[in-house]
Structures are given as C-alpha cells and as structure tokens.
C-alpha cells in the first residue's frame, strides 16, 4: 500500500479528465496533478456512430493514454474505489491511498446491464447490437449491411444516457443502407423510444418528426426495452400503461440505460440518482467545495456529450485556480451542448443548445436544417478538433471553421 499526495487529482482520463489536465498545465505547469485512469486506451466515442454506419474505422477512434495525458501529469493506472471527502483521500482498487487538495471527478458512465434481461449474453451476435458497447461497434455495421429484411428495431431507454441523439443517428444510416442494398421494401423499422418525444429541445423535435415520417419509420413512444429473448428473437418492452408488449425482431440496435460508477454513490459524493452532486453552473460540489465534477458522471443537467465538456472544462479549471488563489469560484457553465444529428449519409442537423433549451448555433445558418456542410463538420472537423485542440487544452472557436460553409 502506498501513500501519494497531489494538489489536483483527476478521476478518469477520458474526454473530461484529459481536457481538464491539459488546460490546467497550460495555465500553470508547476501544478502537481495526477490522473487516476485504469485503461491503457482512450476512445473518441462520438465516431462510434460512424463506425456502426460503416464510414469510419474503429481503430481511428482509439489512442493510447500515454500519448494524451500531458507531460508533467502523473498517470496512476488504477480504479478509484472510494472517495473520502472529509479526509481528502481516494482509495484505489489495488489499495493505494491518494491524498488531494482538489478533486475532479469524471469517470464517465457505465451500462446498466441488469436493466435488460438477456442483453449481456446476447449483444454482439444473432443480430443484436449496440454502438454503446465498445466491443461490438463493428458488429453494428456487419448487422446492418448484411440485413436481409424483416423487422429492425432501434431503442432508446428511460433515464439519462450519453449522446441521446446517437440511438436515432444509427437508425437513419441503417435505413439508407437497407435502401441501397435493396431490402428497404421488405423491412419495417421501429424506433422504440421510452420517452415521449424525438429530442429534448423543441426546435429540433419538429424536423426529426418530419424525418421519421419521410423515411417511413414507425415511432413507438413510451416503450422501454426490458428483456431480449434471443431464442425466439423477441424484445419485451414495458409500456407507459404498465403493460408489457412483445415485438419480434430480425435485428435490434439497443441503447441501454446508464449510470455513473458505483463508487460515487457509495462514497457520499453522489446525489439520489448516483451522479456526482455538483452545482450546474460552477461544477463545484454542493457539499465539498474542493471537489468538482464534469462530463457524463456529473449531475449537470445537460446533454451528456463531449461537446458539453468542451465548455465545462474551462469553468472547472478557472474555478479551481480561483479557489487556490483564495478567490471565489465565479466562472459559470451555461449548459451548452451539441448533438450532431446524423440524419443519413452526407446529412446532419447540428443541434446546439444550452440550459434555455433554445438553439445556440455556432454557424450563421438555420440550425434546424439537414446540411451536407454539417456532415463534413461531424465526419472530419470534430474528430480533428477533439484530438488536436480539445484534449491538448487549446481553445477552439467555431469561427475558424466557417470556411466549410463556402
Ligand atoms: C455511440 C456514442 C455516440 C456519441 N456521440 C457523441 C457526439 O456525436 N457528440 C458528442 O459530443 N458526444 C458524443 N458521445 C458522448 C461522449 O463520448 C461522452 O459524452 C464523453 O466521452 C464523456 O466524457 P467523460 O470524460 O465524462 O467520460 P469518458 O470519455 O467515457 O471517460 C471516462 C474515463 O473514466 C475511466 N474510469 C471509469 N471508471 C473509473 C474509475 N473507477 N476510476 C478511474 N477511472 C475510471 C474510464 O476508463 C474512461 O477512460 C457519444 C458517445 C457514444 C457512446
């Protein structure tokens, strides 16, 4: 058992953890910072939609953490297993105790496997797939491209998930692939959506309703997947009126329910839902002022996206540095998030919004329209920005990309 101390300890070396570490080091490279991250690899998950759609290589979404964790930051290759916010200590899976002055909690989300009976054993074979399960993202494309017709179901679960647009993006690409492969006429597509609407921001709901109608997709609202029966290829849904409904499928893309890692609720830094309990503007913990959270594991009521992290990270950094200088943490996150809604190959609605639930477009164009230019932003610009600007702690403003619109 070893005992280590850092000024700033970051739990999780994903989109949020690496971005925060890089920004902190850019502001002051004398800070003693550690990232606690068990995985050798870092994943650019936003491109998994494109991998599942057959237009991006999975390998291109992976980089070794060694190449991303900024020089001067200590990488502790281990899992956080407990946070003691009164002692300012984190205990890891291997029994290390790490002391911190300031803690940033961003370990992302996990799949709630037990929310769908049979899912864990079934996914990745027999035409059951999910872009949310990293091991089977390639299988999504295999399933869609080899589909011979029948019923194709795409699901959306109850509760908060990362990138809530992703469950329907893959459906639109599948629909086009079925048409290209000559099986669309013999295919019924169902969008089984546990919520009551196509998207949480009203301005983007209307165009999506028109798109599912245009594509002949049947939307079943209030249908929450609870069981898969692979032997009979049946999916069981709990529906709003308390009944269960069974639908036979020939392929199914599952978007499962998600939760923050268990150590958050067991460590008393979580809220009732198990998310790290922070102020939605300052990202500071509601009880422990030296703890901050951002990204998917936080209670911040925004769309869980890497795009949101791009705007949350500078707030976390500025507020920690303010506290270190005995000032008030006054920087505020306004709830910005962006969900590039891929509506087919070469078409995307760039859905940007904030806490007002109104569109906040970065480009001087009607953001509710499907555009080829926004597909190019999703396919080419955003991955580049992620690896080369965001994770390196560099500022990025959309203005510099306006040439794409010409
Ligand atoms: C299919 C799909 C499509 C998406 N599309 C988009 C999109 O178009 N646009 C967009 O902006 N976002 C999109 N996202 C969401 C985006 O990828 C996430 O919001 C983002 O990665 C969250 O960053 P994070 O740092 O909170 O978590 P992650 O990036 O998931 O990183 C969490 C890290 O914490 C580590 N960790 C886990 N448990 C522990 C522990 N106990 N101790 C220490 N470390 C731990 C993990 O190993 C991981 O490296 C998509 C995601 C998926 C899956």
TrEMBL record:
SUPFAM superfamilies: FAD/NAD(P)-binding domain. Residues 6-126, 206-305 form the FAD/NAD(P)-binding domain. It comes from the Bacteria. InterPro entries: FAD/NAD-bd_sf (IPR036188), FAD/NAD-binding_dom (IPR023753), Sulphide_quinone_reductase (IPR015904). Pfam families: Pyr_redox_2 (PF07992). Transmembrane segments: none annotated. PANTHER family: SULFIDE:QUINONE OXIDOREDUCTASE, SULFIDE:QUINONE OXIDOREDUCTASE, MITOCHONDRIAL. This is NAD(P)/FAD-dependent oxidoreductase. The lineage of its organism: Bacteria, Bacillati, Cyanobacteriota, Cyanophyceae, Oscillatoriophycideae.
């Amino acid at each position: 058992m070893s005992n280590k101390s850092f000024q700033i300890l970051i739990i999780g070396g994903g989109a949020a953890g690496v971005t925060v570490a890089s920004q902190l080091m850019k502001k002051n490279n004398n800070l003693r910072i550690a990232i606690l991250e068990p995985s050798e690899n870092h994943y650019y998950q936003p491109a998994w939609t494109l991998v599942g759609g057959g237009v991006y290589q999975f390998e291109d979404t992976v980089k070794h953490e060694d190449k991303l964790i900024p020089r001067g930051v200590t990488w502790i290759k281990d899992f956080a297993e407990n946070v003691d916010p009164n002692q300012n200590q984190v205990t890891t899976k291997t029994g290390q105790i790490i002391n911190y002055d300031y803690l940033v909690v961003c370990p992302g989300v996990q799949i709630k496997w037990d929310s769908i009976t049979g899912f864990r054993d079934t996914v990745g074979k027999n035409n059951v797939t999910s872009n949310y399960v990293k091991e089977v993202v390639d299988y999504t494309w295999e399933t869609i491209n080899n589909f011979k017709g029948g019923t194709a179901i795409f699901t959306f679960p109850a509760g908060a998930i990362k990138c809530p647009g992703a469950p329907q993006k893959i459906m639109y690409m599948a629909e086009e692939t079925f048409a290209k492969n000559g099986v669309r006429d013999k295919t019924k597509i169902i969008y089984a959506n546990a919520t009551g609407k196509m998207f949480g921001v009203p301005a983007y709901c209307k165009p999506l309703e028109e798109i599912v109608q245009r594509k002949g997709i049947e939307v079943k609202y209030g249908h929450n997947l609870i069981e898969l029966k692979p032997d009979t290829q049946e999916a069981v849904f709990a529906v709003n009126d308390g009944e269960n409904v069974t639908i036979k499928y020939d392929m199914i893309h599952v978007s499962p329910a998600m939760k923050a890692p268990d150590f958050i609720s067991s460590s008393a830094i979580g809220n009732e839902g198990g998310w790290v309990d922070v102020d939605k503007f300052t990202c500071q913990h509601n009880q422990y002022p030296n703890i901050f959270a951002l990204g998917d594991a936080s209670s911040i009521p925004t769309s869980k996206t890497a795009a949101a992290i791009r705007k949350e990270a500078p707030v976390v950094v500025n507020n920690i540095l303010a506290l270190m200088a005995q000032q008030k943490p006054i920087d505020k996150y306004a709830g910005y998030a962006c969900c590039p809604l891929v509506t087919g190959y070469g078409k995307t609605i760039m859905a940007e919004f904030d806490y007002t639930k109104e569109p906040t477009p970065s480009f001087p164009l009607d953001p509710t329209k499907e555009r080829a230019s926004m597909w190019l932003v999703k396919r080419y610009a955003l991955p580049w920005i992620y690896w080369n600007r965001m994770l390196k702690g560099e500022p990025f403003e959309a203005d510099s990309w306006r040439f794409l619109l010409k």
